[in-house]
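User: Design a sequence. Structure:
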């Protein structure tokens, strides 16, 4: 039989919050890093709005996020605690939108429209707008921010493959099915390549 999983109950020395911990964490004194640092400084933990502004560097155009970042350079702001599974990373530009304009409607995404070129680390509310996921992707594609061709990590073909597919189809009249089998893609992909609907940047 598996051994029972014991838990130890402790209370945070800073805020008094109850904690239920595994035995290996039984010596833990604080419920979160916020309470730990507050105990060292003697100051209450800053509200999330204040922590947000401490990590923002305003310039004449963009407001640059100086804190942690996620993929593609987007800023993140941590809230909650991992002890009660409430810890989460909020995108800094989304938090900025909510701080200045209110809740984000369901199904909408916060997009960038910086005058000097989209800057993922920018949290200036004047450079943000709401759109659907599809609209966001189309906007990124129009601005050349979507990886295309070989730069797309999911691409199965190289630019040389595409040029060869078009040559074989247009000059030697090789059948679409034969090309699909040779290059290990489906017929629909071959059709879009030879008609110029995909890999448009390859001439």
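Assistant: Done.
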């Amino acid at each position: 039989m598996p051994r029972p999983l014991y838990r130890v109950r402790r209370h945070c020395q800073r805020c008094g919050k109850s904690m239920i911990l595994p035995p290996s964490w039984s010596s833990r004194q604080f419920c979160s890093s916020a309470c730990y640092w507050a105990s060292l400084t003697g100051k209450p933990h800053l509200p999330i709005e204040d922590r947000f502004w401490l990590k923002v560097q305003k310039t004449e155009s963009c407001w640059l996020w100086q804190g942690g970042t996620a993929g593609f350079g987007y800023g993140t702001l941590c809230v909650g605690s991992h002890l009660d599974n409430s810890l989460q990373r909020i995108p800094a530009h989304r938090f900025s939108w909510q701080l200045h304009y209110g809740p984000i409607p369901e199904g909408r995404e916060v997009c960038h429209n910086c005058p000097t070129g989209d800057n993922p680390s920018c949290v200036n509310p004047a450079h943000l707008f709401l759109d659907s996921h599809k609209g966001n992707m189309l906007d990124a594609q129009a601005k050349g921010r979507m990886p295309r061709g070989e730069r797309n990590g999911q691409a199965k073909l190289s630019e040389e493959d595409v040029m060869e597919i078009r040559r074989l189809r247009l000059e030697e009249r090789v059948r679409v099915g034969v090309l699909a089998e040779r290059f290990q893609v489906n017929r629909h992909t071959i059709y879009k390549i030879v008609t110029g609907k995909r890999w448009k940047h390859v001439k």
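The two ends are 67 Å apart (CA to CA). The longest strand covers residues 8-11.
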